[in-house]
Amino acid sequence: MAELNRGIELMEYPFTPINMYDKIYSYGRAQETNPHPYAIALRDYLKEVNDKDDNNGYPPTAYLADINRDGIMEMLVNGTRLFYLQDGKLKTYDIEADFGDADYTMEFSQNNYLVAQPTVGDAEATTVLILKDGKIVKEPEFVGMYFLGYTSFMHGDKEISELEYEKLKEFYGVTEVYSNRKNQIDEILAMTNTIKAMTTSSKVKVNGILKEFESYNINGNNYFKLRDLAQVVNKTSKNFEVEWDGAKNAIRLISNKAYTPVGGELAKGDGKTKSAQVTTSAIYKDGKEISLTAYNIGGSNFFKLRDIAKAFDIGVTWDGPTNTVGIDTGKRYVAE
Q1: DSSP code string of 243-307
Q2: Exposure string for 131-148, b = 16+ CB within 10 A, e = fewer
Q3: Which of 200, 206, 233, 209 is nearest to 323 (CA)?
Q4: pLDDT tens for residues 75-86?
Q5: How far is CA 156 from CA 128, 139, 142, 169, in A?
Q6: pTM of the prediction?
Q7: 46 confidence band (pLDDT: 50, 70, 90)
Q8: d(C-alpha 330, C-alpha 135), whole Å
């Protein structure tokens, strides 16, 4: 996935407090990288744990897995905190806040499910934690009790057979064998948001007139400079204004308002592949925050053409034989 492209390589250090700081901050001082949110979060978490001396002498651990199968990795640190991305924003889940005083730890199972298990007690107990709609949801716990020849198996409040219990363990990839999953701290600290943006060869017509754009293809989608799009639909029924709110690090889009050029609109690109970083700014349309994927390339924000077209109900067409994208302000947007 694009977000997990590797950045600089870090030297190996033993995890003493001083060397941990050295490891973390030598990465943080790198000037030519745009750290991934997981890299920043892990760096801050390790510093917090080190300051509190809160790891009981054990080396810290961090792992990546795609627990909800959406192509975006989640990060588990020290078995107690999950970091995940929802609509481009970093969120966390702490097991202590959900399981109260019970002594539980989380891990990624062999089948890449997030599971919580008690660290003490005679019973085997597993709670599968599902990431759904941006929140962690507990599945019913399944428990196996083995004591002095007595066995009992439960799934939620329902008694099940040993065979059913073993099938649950097999399905979710739960095993008594200690996980041999590689500690990914170095890899995560080196993650960046930088991906490659390839120049597009497609022609673009706006209301039937051929226009030149600086545009890029990222992961199979065409991205255009936001202000270029605002410029070419200016003085039409689909015009919109673009404003920058520096105090709130936000891009504000305003419907049915003439666009105010700032200079540099529709400048021709150099035709070279560029590095792109995910835009971290919030995006508002008519005062309401909306979720759009945008990339910063060379200091300008590039948006997926169809996202902007959908937001402002602008018609978009594709002519395969002539390799031409059409933007038609006289038509309504139609989904692919």
Answers
A1: EEEGGGTEEEEEETS-----S-TTPPP-S--EEEEE--SEEEETTEEE---EEEETTEEEEEHHH
A2: beeeebeebebbbbeeee
A3: 200
A4: 999 999 999 988
A5: 12, 8, 6, 14
A6: 0.56
A7: confident
A8: 41
